[in-house]
Amino acid sequence: MGSELNEAEDSEPVMRFYDVWLPRYLESNGDLPRGESEAASEMLGQALDRHLEGLGDVTEAWGVKVPRSILMLAFWHRLFPDVSFVHLVRDGLDMAYSRDRNQLRMFGDQVLTAEERCCPEEVQAIAYWQRVNLMAAEYGESRLGPRYLRLRFEDVCARPTWAYGQLRAISRARGVPARADVIEREVDPPASIGRWRTRPRQEVGRLMEVGAVGLRRFEYGVSP
Fold first, then answer.
1. Residue-wise pLDDT tens for the chain (224 aa)?
2. Is 175 left (phi over 0), alpha (psi -120 to 50) or beta?
């Protein structure tokens, strides 16, 4: 999954690419002018060369883990028509109370409306979660078909063996066998699962109202 990773095992070279191009991509609504699109493609190619450095035969299947990739899924698909995408989604109510709001801080102006940006931060967070994840789900289901796999974070934590079974089909198609022992070893359910349940009922009700479409789509329709 890469030779230059940070503590979260995200690809540092690809993150540097996103630092430059993701704001411009979002500002253009995913339609970069031809010259900029070519420049972005070239820089991503250089980032991937660095990402794959020293990993052996790169004609075989390889992968990239960076959460921001969800925002440029269509761009990746244009460059790599046979791309597979594993979409890991977590309960939007928990995400609303996450202390990690880097994406909201960096890309909220491009993703949210001006009215949404005036809301309390937890409301902005669930609005951002809903828009980004619905966009990825709709694109993946309509354009990638069997090369798109969506997993709920909570299901993976509760049933890592089941998650292995889900991943096995898509990994076999890429020529890389999924390893159950690796998945089980890596899964470490955090105590923050369900943290929204400790928040005031009225506050959670507002979040459920804002994120209603996404919560239903991803089957998080739980009463506060």
1. 788 999 989 999 999 999 999 999 999 999 999 999 999 999 999 999 999 987 776 567 788 999 999 999 999 999 999 999 999 999 999 999 999 999 999 999 999 999 999 999 999 999 999 999 999 999 999 999 999 999 999 999 998 888 888 887 777 666 666 665 666 677 889 999 999 999 999 999 999 999 999 999 999 976 55
2. left
Rounded Cα distance, 111 and 126, in Å: 12
Cα-Cα-Cα-Cα dihedral of 68, 73, 75, 78, to 10°?
150
CA nearest to 5, candidates 88, 94, 66:
66
What is the DSSP track for 165-205? HHHHHHHHHTT----HHHHHHH----TTTTGGGGS-HHHHH
Cα–Cα distance measured from residue 37 to residue 73, given in angstroms and rounded to the nearest whole number: 14
- Rounded Cα distance between 47 and 2, Å, is 11
Please state the φ and ψ torsions of residue 19, each to the nearest 5 degrees. Answer: -55, -35
Residue 37 · residue 28 · CB < 8 Å:
no
190 to 68, 102, 138, 194: CA distances (angstroms): 21, 19, 28, 10
Task: Give the DSSP letter string of 60-124.
Answer: S------GGGGGGHHHHHHH-TT--EEEEE--HHHHHT-S--HHHHHHHHHHS-HHHHTS-HHHH
- Asked if 64 and 2 count as a contact pair (C-beta separation under 8 A), the reply is yes
